Amino acid sequence: MEHEKQVQLELASHIGRLLREAFGKGPQSIHVSIRRPFVVVYLRSFLSQTEKILLEQDQVFSMQNTRDLVMKTLIPEIKAFTSLIAGMHLRQFYYDWGLHNHSGVFVGIEADEGNLEAIKREHYPGKDEFLQEIRSISEMVQKVPEESYSCMVNDRTLVVVRNGILINIEKELIRLGYEENLKLAKRNLEKRHLHNNNHFQRILHRHIVDVFADWDFHYDRSVFVFMLQPGQ
């Protein structure tokens, strides 16, 4: 347990340094949670002075585009350091920003998903109803996922994975090179449904602090992260 805590602290410190060097200002706090095959990095109070000006001028797309460009250079180094310090070889990497409250999340999934079957069988209060609500939102926006499962990484971090979510028109848009526009549209649409859903907190009996969403079109997979108020 002590070793795991040290690994999480070292990852948080390294990621904080990378973000400071890249953006000129790092997050006020970084919390790293590991439950293999997942590593989740939660950033709070992350906004540079330049980005603050862009937000005030309603230049959200410009800000997101800049962050995307920077993240493309940072992800390989984050993956390499995670492999070195935690022995986790991340095959997939997801990220999203909560610009309304200056937060963000990174999610890495390692190549060896051997722990998934046990995780899928685990129970937490409200799990079945929660996943049914996720499937209902998916059906409203696009289609019911071929598979969906969730993992309570710790007391405050709930990860949802959906596989097989793309419809034919989306696959064609990706083939034609509209991947980034499609992701932006899906993020705006799905997060609107996630944020405006008043059933999640009732089902989980927990206050939801943040919700994040990202996609990997190559794997036809999407990841949601719900940051919860710690239980009493």
Essential attributes:
alpha+beta, 47% helix, 232 residues, 4-stranded antiparallel beta sheet, 8 helices
Shape designation: globular
β-strand amount: 25-35%
> What is the spatial order of strands in the main beta sheet?
1-2-4-3
Query: What does the radius of gyration come to?
Result: 17 Å
- Count of helices? 8
Low-confidence segments: none
Q: Give the helices and strands as they follow along the chain.
A: HEEHHEEHHEEHHHEE
Instruction: Give the integer mean of the pLDDT values.
Output: 93
Q: Could you say which structural class the secondary elements and strand pairing correspond to?
A: alpha+beta
Number of strands: 8
- State the separation between the terminal residues, measured CA to CA: 22 Å
Largest sheet descriptor: 4 strands, antiparallel
Fraction of residues in H or I helices: 40-55%
